[in-house]
Design a protein that fits this description.
Layout: H1 5-16, H2 24-48, H3 53-65, E1 71-72, H4 73-80, H5 84-96, E2 100-105, E3 108-116, H6 118-138, H7 144-160, H8 165-168
Antiparallel strand pairs: 1-3, 2-3
Helix pairs in contact: 1-2, 2-6, 3-6, 4-5
Length: 174
């Protein structure tokens, strides 16, 4: 079997600290390395659409919400798990690009409603299709059964740390 960088790290720890069980590094080290690889590949894809990751997330959240009325800026901020300032910056960029509108709610002038423009909807529909294809390519070394097993194991791990769907809201990562 071919060794990866994590195998080397765990072997080195076993050699210099035989009293230390470094086996958790086999999982978390690989998750960390794979996350960096996936993030690099996702960033490359999003840039092909003229988007940054956060901009894609906002557009995807609005598209998944499937509401002609849009969402409040507060809902977007809560669901994206970033500061309201970060959401405001993303919204500013997307308004400037013509992909979203940001209007005051006529029923409550303190509330801002964010909605996709036709150009934004067309862009996110193309981008999300390419995104899913890109994710499929990233996972291609695993057959469907292995992907299902990995997804199930990661779900168990996430739930054990309190990462439940009700905590994420409509913009949860996928």
């Amino acid at each position: 079997m071919t060794r990866d960088a994590v195998d080397l790290v765990v072997e080195q720890w076993a050699r210099v600290r035989p009293d230390l069980d470094a086996s958790p590094m086999r999982v978390l080290g690989r998750l960390s390395r794979m996350t960096r690889i996936a993030e690099r590949e996702l960033k490359k894809l999003f840039s092909e659409f003229g988007l940054e990751r956060g901009e894609f997330d906002v557009l995807a959240t609005l598209r998944r919400a499937d509401s002609a009325d849009g969402m409040t800026a507060g809902m977007l901020a809560r669901s994206s798990m970033v500061t309201s300032g970060a959401v405001t910056n993303r919204l500013d960029r997307l308004v400037a690009k013509g992909y979203i509108t940001r209007d005051l709610d006529p029923a409550n002038r303190r509330t801002v409603i964010v909605a996709l423009t036709p150009a934004g909807r067309e862009l996110i529909d193309r981008a999300v299709a390419a995104h899913v294809d890109n994710e499929r390519r990233i996972l291609a070394a695993l057959d469907q059964h292995q992907q299902d097993d990995l997804a199930a194991a990661l779900r168990i791990l996430l739930l054990s740390h309190g990462d439940e769907a009700s905590d994420v809201g409509p913009a949860g990562e996928a």
